[in-house]
Design a protein that fits this description.
Blueprint: H1 7-13, H2 32-38, H3 44-48, E1 54-56, E2 62-64, H4 76-80, E3 97-100, H5 114-118, E4 124-129, E5 132-138, H6 148-152, E6 158-161
Antiparallel strand pairs: 1-2, 3-6, 4-5
């Protein structure tokens, strides 16, 4: 029996008939297929993470869970790994960006700025809008994908993933149109 795990076959048995997006990978890790091929699932990176945001994902492979906290880019996971699974730490850790989903509290006219308060690179700003509560925008040039805003959002409307930033460079929630 081969030692390699085919994650697409596992999805079939769990009722997922199409392939899903790869999970949030560790900072500086190689692409997902190369990572899965060479990772021994030893757990050294999980134990080394001071923020404890690395968890066992599908097939026992380590992934990032921003519901547990933020990545501080400390490189401890890279240092702990004995397999060649990481790019040089002089490169950008990843190309993940935060995105604000439509269920943001600003859409319901509820004032909340917790994501802005937790964003160290000041990538999230709230823009005043006449007759509405301020709405958040994310500057992709400042967002490093650390995930600090994810855990702080009370309704889970912030996601960090590899989607490209929208044209114009600013991610905003889609605002509901008010009935006249």
């Amino acid at each position: 029996m081969p030692d390699e795990i085919d994650l697409t076959r596992r999805g079939l048995f769990r009722g997922r008939l199409r392939t899903t997006e790869p999970p949030l990978q560790l900072p500086w890790s190689v692409n997902w297929s190369a990572f899965v091929a060479d990772c021994t699932r030893c757990g050294d990176c999980l134990a080394a993470c001071p923020e404890q945001i690395l968890v066992n994902g599908e097939g026992g492979f380590p992934v990032v869970d921003f519901q547990l906290g933020q990545c501080t880019f400390c490189t401890e996971c890279v240092s702990a790994c004995k397999a060649p699974l990481f790019r040089p730490t002089t490169e950008s850790p990843w190309h993940y960006q935060a995105h604000i989903e439509a269920n943001c509290l600003a859409n319901g006219q509820v004032f909340c700025q917790r994501c802005q308060d937790s964003c160290e690179p000041h990538a999230i700003r709230f823009m005043p809008v006449l007759g509405r509560v301020p709405t958040p925008t994310i500057d992709p040039g400042r967002c490093n994908g650390c995930g600090a805003c994810v855990q702080d959002c009370p309704v889970g409307s912030i996601k960090v993933d590899g989607r490209a930033a929208p044209l114009g460079g600013v991610s905003q929630p889609t605002l509901k149109q008010e009935s006249e």
